[in-house]
Design goal:
single chain, about 50% strand, elongated, five-stranded antiparallel β-sheet, Jelly Rolls, 1 helix, mainly beta, four-stranded antiparallel β-sheet
């Protein structure tokens, strides 16, 4: 089966079938159909020429708490943000922390789900050098979650926010 790419629309010559998909970007040039099949007429092309439908893309700004201010983090405890939908974003920016610097309080950033349904660790650290972390990371999967783990000998509280811009069609 031979194919060609014109204006982002694949056109097949075998049996005169035309792919019914258009690119997400604006289409300004007619796509030439190299077959005078009934499929072309079905798509509204009287002379074997048709235009792709325009899909508008809107930027959505997301800024939200992932851990509320004062979220309890008891001795030996783990708190997490739960999965956050970051689909459509290229990068995410997180700010999170605890009341005081502490080497025995850990943070982990996970993306997923992977093909097996699990989330993978992409970034981690402690609060040894400061009580807050600001990090920007590329998006590796459609969801992420943040975890704080308290392995110290005192109760602590945490907080966290996320900021990103995503394209929505």
């Amino acid at each position: 089966m031979s194919t060609t790419e014109r204006c982002g629309v694949a056109v097949w010559f075998e049996c005169g079938a035309i792919a019914r998909s258009c690119p997400a970007w604006r289409q300004s040039t007619p796509c030439k159909v190299r077959s005078s099949s009934a499929d072309a007429a079905e798509l509204g092309a009287e002379t074997g020429v048709f235009l792709c439908q325009e899909e508008s893309v809107v930027a959505e700004i997301v800024y939200e708490n992932v851990l509320d201010e004062g979220t309890p983090l008891p001795i030996g405890g783990v708190v997490g943000s739960g999965p956050i939908d970051v689909n459509g974003a290229r990068a995410v920016h997180l700010m999170f922390g605890v009341r005081e610097p502490h080497a025995d309080i850990y943070w982990r950033l996970n993306f997923g789900p992977l093909t097996n349904g699990a989330f993978a660790l992409t970034n981690s650290g402690t609060f040894e050098d400061g009580s807050s972390v600001a990090i920007a990371v590329p998006v590796f999967a459609p969801s992420l979650f943040l975890e704080l783990e308290n392995q110290s000998t005192q109760d602590e509280t945490g907080f966290g926010t996320i900021y990103f811009i995503r394209d929505v069609t």
